[in-house]
Design brief:
Number of helices: 8
Radius of gyration: 19 Å
Order of helices and strands: EHHEHHEHEHHEEH
Strand content: 5-15%
Strand order of the largest sheet: 3-4-2-1-5-6
Shape: globular
Helix content: 40-55%
Structural class: alpha/beta
Number of domains: 1
CATH superfamily: Decaprenyl diphosphate synthase-like
Number of strands: 6
Largest sheet: 6 strands, parallel
Length: 241
Amino acid sequence: MAARQDLPAHVGIIMDGNGRWAKKRGLPRKMGHRAGADAFKKIARYANRIGLKYLTAYVFSTENWKRPKDEVDSILSLLRSYLDEMENYRRENIRVRFIGDRSVFDAGIQAKMARAEEQSKDATGLTLILAINYGGRAEIAHAARQIARAVQAGRLSPEAVTEETFGDYLYTAGIPDVDLLIRPSGEYRLSNFLLWQTAYAEYVFMSGVLWPDFKPETLEEALREYRSRSRRFGGLSASDS
C-alpha cells in the first residue's frame, strides 16, 4: 500500500475499554487486556502500511499500579510476551520507542525495551511509541527537574528556557506534537496522557467502540473526522477572515 497524503503526522491513542469488553462477555479482565493487545498489533501494522509516521499508544499509566495485583501481573506478563515479539516490527520497518519511567520495571523488561529500541533504530517506516508507566504530569515534572539541573550547572540560562527548549527535555524530544488524539470507550478525558504534546491536537472520542473491537476501519473513521476539522492553531481560517 502506498503512503497516503491525507494523514496526520502523529496520532495518539488511549486504548480504553479492555475491562468493560471482558465484563460484557463474562470474562476476567485479563482476557480483555489480551484482546486489547491483539487489537493494538493489528492497528500498529495497519498504520505502518498506510504510511503514518508516528503512533503513540497509552499502554500503562503511572496510575494503573492502583489496580488489583492480579490484573497488574497479567498486564506485565502481556508486556513481556509483546516485547519478545518486537523482532517482527524490525522486519516490518517499524521503529519502536518507549516513553515513561522504565526504572520501576525489572531488569529483564528494561533489557527487552532497550533491545527493541536498538534493533529498530534505523527503521524508516512508522515510529511506534509505547507509553509505559507514563504520566503527563510526571513527564513535565521530570523535564522541569532536568532543566533546573542544567541551569544550576550553568549549561542553560533561565532566559533560554522557551517552549521549544522545554520540549527538548520531554520524553518525546524530536517527535512532532500530536495532531489527532483518539479515545474509544465513551470516556471524554485525557487521563494524564501527553498533556504538553496534545495542546493543539484534534480530539476524537468514540463512544460506540471498546478498544478490543477497534479495527482498521475504526481508525479510518477517526481519520475522516480529523480531515473534516479546520485547524487554526489560535489563528483564523480563511472563512473567518
